[in-house]
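--- STAGE predict ---
source: upstream dedup step, 1 unique chain passed
mode: sequence only
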Amino acid sequence: MRAPRRSKPAGAAGSRQRLLGAAKRLMAEAGYERSSTAAIAREAGTSESQLVRYFGSKAGLLETIFDESWVPLNTRIAPLVAAAPTVREAMITILSTMIGALERDPNLAKLFLFEGRRVRGDSAEILLTQGAGSGCRRVAVVMVLCNNGRRHKTAPRNFDPRGGIGSASRPAI
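--- STAGE serialize ---
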């Protein structure tokens, strides 16, 4: 008599989503370097060949996690920023939306914090994803907002947006 097989969601989307979820959990718990592709595939109930098929490599899997995580954030942030009456409100909106999203997904927060710009392996390669590009676009939006705030006199006169993100997060804005 055969042992019953563990049920899996049907179709490619099921395997792909399970791999993304397993990788996010394992990488958040153990880190990128200590999460093997075999462990990720085992946790997802699929094979390493499926991981390679969908993502190319472990680095491609992490890149996809970042890229696909930025999409809903960008979708929520853009209209809120456009509707904000002041630069201060726009910046508060950006920060509160991002903080809320990371509070709802602690694994993603750990990955963004600890794995987003980590040097990989023996090379000097730093993983910058489309998500990171979105982050750069958000910085550009913040810079435009800061400049508009200075022009409309809703930001302090001595505020210099070229001072970096640290200066942009000061409560004086």
